[in-house]
Amino acid sequence: MGDIQPGHSATAELPLESGEALGTGKVKLRLEIKEGNGFDADATIVELKTRRFDPPLLEVSGLALGSGAVQPGEAAPLTVEIRNAGKGHAKDVVATLVLGSPDLCMSGEPAVGLGPMAPGEGKSASFEFFLNKRYKGSPSLPISLTVREAKGRYGLERHPLKLLAGKGAEICAKYGPHLGW
């Protein structure tokens, strides 16, 4: 804090951070201020209220195919609605479309930054891909979505989108890891 002249005061800011295991309740901190010549201030106890960590829960809440269906040789614009169904804020949310076949090609970037998401908030991620005319696989296309957030624990990893070659997207009310998908 440096030198403090007689009759003056100084303020210091002390950032505090807790782990996710901290529950709702109170925590006591003992503050001690040391002076260079031994004229230390009396220690004081500060009591702070704490609140448990509420995690975000990111889920896919809807799909829309702009072209109506995934047809070989045609662009397939895809919009995926991502929703934070948890009670906590999600930071630095990124949605990435994962194409699981060499016969599927991205048109543009596979990752879309969605930024922060408040509880209950939904945001759209738009992608465009192509299915080439050589595709001989299952009608169920190997396309999934990975959604990550800053902590790396409350998103989706390679979440199947259940798109079919030659057909439109199944519009679903919502699905996420807690719903068995």
Q: Gyration radius, to the nearest Å?
A: 26 Å
Give the biggest sheet.
4 strands, antiparallel
Helix content: under 10%
In terms of per-residue confidence, which ranges show pLDDT below 50 for 5 or more consecutive residues? 171-181
Shape: elongated
Distance between the termini: 55 Å
The number of helices is: 0
What integer is the average pLDDT? 87
Q: Beta-strand level of the residues, as a percent range?
A: 35-45%
Order of helices and strands: EEEEEEEEEE
Quickly give the structural class. Answer: mainly beta
How many strand elements? Answer: 10
Strand order, sheet with most strands: 3-4-8-6
List the helices and strands and how they pair.
Layout: E1 25-31, E2 44-50, E3 58-65, E4 75-84, E5 90-99, E6 104-106, E7 111-117, E8 122-131, E9 143-148, E10 156-160
